[in-house]
Amino acid sequence: MEEMSEKQEKVSFLQAIKNFWVGYIDFKGRTTRTEFWVNMLLFLVAIIGFFIIVWMKIEKAGYLTFEDYYSSMGTFFFLGIFLVIPYLAMFARRMRDAGFNGKGTKITVRGNIVEGKVKIGTAFIP
Q1: Which residues constitute the domain of residue 102?
Q2: 59-85 pLDDT per residue, tens
Q3: Of 14, 38, 106, 125, which one has the fewest beta carbons inside 10 Å?
Q4: Do 105 and 92 touch, CB atoms closer than 8 A?
Q5: How many structural domains is the chain composed of?
Q6: How far apart are CA 96 and CA 64, in angstroms?
Q7: 8, part of any domain
């Protein structure tokens, strides 16, 4: 497995994305601010793009059918499952870099997991 470049102070946009995927399940180590915020920006762009596509479906048909709703939420659910592990790993590394160690990081990561479960559970309620 390839190693993340932790010793760099300045990380390029592409290197930040590469480090995100290389550190897919690496909960130890560090993440720079640039790496963290570049990937958060990409998450935001992806989520906005996804909802624009759903909104365009609604505008085209005039309404959202149950099939469209559940297929959209299913797609969103599987993307979330695919990205939750690297997101939590990146978050734990960033918390460690910010000075939180041990219990502080564990509590915050577990809080994010619980919050995600609540959001996923309510997403399928029409």
Answers
A1: 13-123
A2: 777 776 777 777 777 777 787 778 878
A3: 125
A4: yes
A5: 1
A6: 43
A7: no
